Amino acid sequence: MTSAISWIKPDETAKEALVRILTDRPFVVLPPPLHRLPLRVGNVVEIVGPSPSAKTLILTQAVVNCILPKEWKGVQYGGLERAVLFVDLDCRFDVLSLSRALELRITGGSTKGNKHEYDKELFAACMRRFLYIRCYNSFEFLSILKTMHYRLQNERETQATGVYMLMFDSIGAFYWMDRALPSSSSGNNRKNLSLQSVAETTVQEIQRLLLVHPMLVLVAKSASFSDKQSISEVTRNSGKRQNTFDIRGPGNLTYRDYMPSVWQSFVTHRVLFRASDGNGKHQRHPTFSTEWLLPSVKLSDNFTVNDDGLIVIL
């Protein structure tokens, strides 16, 4: 009887479990315009929008916020002081833009008053937390994913903390190349590389990484807008259901998710960015609007990009 009671006795109370979970995986509030919903490691956030809609800039601002320390030599920066792994699939990421954004945050150039001197030591410490990988096709991308565990493990051993954010820009970069690949199986019982197999392997590898290396995943993806007639034709010809959203895009077109369903179900949060109808008082700069599709909540913002390349909420 005593052994049975000891077997069913809980190791911790619900309160203790909740405190432990929130301590190990606390909520993360990203910089605007991604600040509306609290996120935590393990979430996969998809940033969707046509080109241009400041998707890469939003990722850059999130990188700066993550690699900056919370405090440095008595100056409060409010950063996370954690490493970021940025996987560039578009092969267009500008590291110079990242360095300029980081320098603005260090010197306080984004605020009125409270200017600080440029600190080279702080800049170097922050850039050491930024890891960058470039891929030119799906073969390289899948190879990187399969070997990423060892790189993340090495980073954890080198620095005090491991990689906190994993970013992909953009996840649909090789869509048309993969779609042109044959989908039939070869005679040697090996699965050929195809759009579906790439998506399945990508999801499996990221899931394995998150089990060992808890990270927040941010993914940029180009938006596809089509009229309902063309969507019906694609669905009829391919025999596969296409996910559409009743969202008016340019020319009253409908937003269509072109990624395979295995990827769509893997995403936990999705936010759509698009050009706003009017510029209002900020006529010198284009304005953009946000809309959360997953979860579907009535939270939206309008923002613009100023001359310094910083996002300004209107």
From TrEMBL:
InterPro entries: P-loop_NTPase (IPR027417), XRCC2 (IPR030547). This is RecA family profile 1 domain-containing protein. It comes from Penstemon smallii.
